[in-house]
Amino acid sequence: MDIIFLQGVRARTLIGCYDWERVAPQVVELDLEIALPSTRACHTDNLNDTINYDQLVTHLRKELEAQHFLLLEALADHIAKVIREQFCAPWTRVSVIKPGILHEVTRVGVTVERGQRS
Ligand SMILES: Nc1nc2c(c(=O)[nH]1)N=C([C@H](O)[C@@H](O)CO)CN2
Question: Is 66 within 8 Å of 53 (Cβ atoms)?
Fold first, then answer.
């Protein structure tokens, strides 16, 4: 299986359980692993035969600006759904990190894995 990965993708979204988090968007960081539906692009060397990670990042940033979630779990699940349904990925692992949210914690976030790794 071939995988595209993206690390430290920054995006803005309204996220959080507490009142102070409901007033303005925060920056979240995404680490993404995305299985490709086929190995076709390896042979054709054609961008149309793979998932265009440039388009994916642009799409996700727009999506996150429009969506409002309370929990990182719900946000990560939504991102995985978009990747699978709109970019035809059979499997994905999505981590969403809230930089600097907890005192004396380097990184906190949630990882979800959806679909089948074949
Ligand atoms: N498992 C989770 N725990 C917490 C979340 C979350 O999304 N998932 N969120 C919060 C707050 O919004 C936090 O980020 C602010 O301190 C607390 N716990």
Answer: no
Q: 26-35 and 3-15 as β-strands: parallel, antiparallel, unpaired?
A: antiparallel
- Give 11-70 pLDDT, tens digit per residue: 999 999 999 999 999 999 999 999 999 999 999 999 999 999 999 999 999 999 999 999
CB of 6 closer than 8 Å to CB of 86: no
C-alpha 102 – ligand 1 centre gap (Å): 10
98 in contact with ligand 1, CB cutoff 6 A: yes
CATH of residue 20's domain is 3.30.1130.10
pTM over 0.95: yes
- The domain total for the chain is 1
Cα-based distances in Å from 42 to 11, 55, 100? 30, 19, 39
**Three-state SS at 68:** strand
Contact between 10 and 31 under an 8 Å Cβ cutoff? The reply is no
Does the CB atom of residue 20 touch ligand 1 within 6 A?
no
Domain containing residue 33:
3-115
